[in-house]
Amino acid sequence: MEVRLLFVPPGGGETAYSLDIDLPSSPQRGDYVSVWSPEHSGTADFIVRRTRWYLEQPEGSNRGTVNRISVEAEYARGPNSSEEHLHAYRKYHAQTGEERRFEESAY
Question: Tens digits of per-residue pLDDT, 17-46?
Answer without folding.
Answer: 999 999 999 999 999 999 998 888 999 999
